[in-house]
Structure formats: C-alpha cells, structure tokens
Amino acid sequence: MELILQGMTKSFGDKKVLQGAGFHFQKGKIYGLLGRNGAGKTTLFNCLSGETKIDGGHAWLNDDGGKRKLVEEDIGYVYSLPILPEFLTGYEFIKFYLDINRDKRPGSNIDAYFDKMSMSQEDRHRLIKNYSHGMKNKIQMLLFLISKPPVILLDEPLTSFDVIVAHEMKNMLREMKSDHILIFSTHILQLAADLCDEIVVLNNGQLSAVPADLLHSAEFEQSIISLLKDENHAENI
Ligand SMILES: Nc1ncnc2c1ncn2[C@@H]1O[C@H](COP(=O)(O)OP(=O)(O)OP(=O)(O)O)[C@@H](O)[C@H]1O
C-alpha cells in the first residue's frame, strides 16, 4: 500500500503554504514529518483528512484494489488537541465506537482495548471532560485500533505523554506500522530519530526525504537544522 501525493497546493489569502508538495509514503514505515513552526504540517494533514480543501494537486491510495483517490474514511487523524464527546466516559465512547464498527471488530472486548492503553479501571469510567490531554490522545489512538484506517496521521502526538506512556505508544506504533501508513509530525528530533524509519521535511511548501543513512548518524541534528534554516521562512509564519 502506498500514499501518493502529487503537486499539492494550498494558500491562505496570499500566503502560499503548500507549493506543489509531492511524496510517496509506503505501508510498513513510520514517517516523521519535520518542519519549522508555520511550515504547513497541520495544513498538509488537514488537506489529507478532508478538513481543509486543497487548491490543487492530488492524493492517491495505491492498495490491493489499485490506485484510487484518497477519501476521508482512509484517514485516522490523531489531533494534538483531540475533539471528543466530553459528556461520555471513555468506556461509553469506546463501546459506542465498537458498536458502529461491529462489522470490522465482531465480539471485541472493550476492556482489552483499554488494557492495551494501560488505562486504569477508574479512568476508563470517568467522563472524558476530566481527562488529561494525554488520556484524550490515548482514546483517539484506540479509535484507530478499532477502525484501522489505512493512513494514520499524528499531529505532535507523543509530546503530551509521560515517559512510560510514550514508551508504550512508541511500541504500539511500531506494531501498527505493518498494516498502516503512519505519518507523524514532531519538533522533537530525538523522537523522530528513535521512532521513524524515514524523515520527511516540509520546507518552502515542498516535501523532501532526508537520506536514510543520516537518520542514525551524529550529523542528523545538524543536517536537519541546515535544511530548515533559510531566509524565506520568516515571512511564512
Ligand atoms: N485557516 C487558516 N487561515 C489562515 N491561515 C492559516 C490557516 N491555517 C493555517 N494558516 C497559516 O498557514 C501556515 C501554516 O500553518 P500550519 O499550522 O499548517 O503550520 P505547522 O507546520 O503545523 O506549524 P506548527 O509547527 O507551529 O504547528 C501558517 O502561516 C498559518 O498561520
């Protein structure tokens, strides 16, 4: 399975954010999307998820059925600030979500999903409105374990997790990558180097791969800094 982006463009007024961004993302890899503040990472994710209308270009999904247009249902989007039904408990919400995805996950055990996320019995039965940021992110991840969308986008996902949960989440992402295309945006270079199979940089509205041999080299940080340092950036924010 492959996600193919071609010539994606998006402007807000006269601010050109995406300027012909193109890339091929493969299943089985975790991609780290790096870019400076205001580079357009969230805009790219919003365009892929259908939340923001793109001005030009295409996004395709190449899977067993051949190449087809990417649709909203193909995307699981883990927001940095999750939007969830605050009036339900985590348990009630996941139960509801399992019910509407019954065809995909028949006979699933709700508690087993919470166990995977190391969420205590007490927490799973509390109202979502009282959840911490990290707990809300966990609930979002649970949704995608259930619905299994082919492409999962994570907007700065691990920054709100404590060290233990971040470790568990990293393991979960590593487990999930064999079935999904996983792209996550982050500003934490160490996390990107630790977790990602490939680094993609969004700079001046274009996507480009960082050579794989740099990922675990001593020059990684310096290479990314040099790549992202440019005079055009300031006017972009
Ligand atoms: N709805 C909008 N209307 C107008 N401008 C917008 C809108 N959404 C984003 N922008 C602008 O587009 C540019 C890219 O923003 P975006 O949030 O995609 O960047 P980002 O790479 O995710 O940044 P950060 O790393 O700071 O989260 C910014 O200049 C931002 O102000």
Distinct ligands: adenosine-5'-triphosphate
Please give the order of strands in the largest beta sheet: 6-7-8-3-9-10
Query: What is the number of beta strands?
Result: 10
Strand proportion: 25-35%
> What coarse outline follows from CA principal-axis ratios?
globular
Helix fraction by DSSP (H/I, runs of at least 4):
25-40%
Please identify which CATH superfamily we are dealing with: P-loop containing nucleotide triphosphate hydrolases
CA radius of gyration = 18 Å
- CATH topology (fold) name: Rossmann fold
The CATH architecture classification is 3-Layer(aba) Sandwich
What count of helical segments does DSSP give?
Answer: 8
Tell me the structural class: alpha/beta
The tally of structural domains comes to: 1
Keywords: ATP-binding, Nucleotide-binding, Transport
InterPro entries: AAA+_ATPase, ABC_transporter-like_ATP-bd, ABC_transporter-like_CS, ABC_Transporter_VariousFunc, P-loop_NTPase
GO molecular function, one term: ATP hydrolysis activity
Protein name: ABC-2 type transport system ATP-binding protein
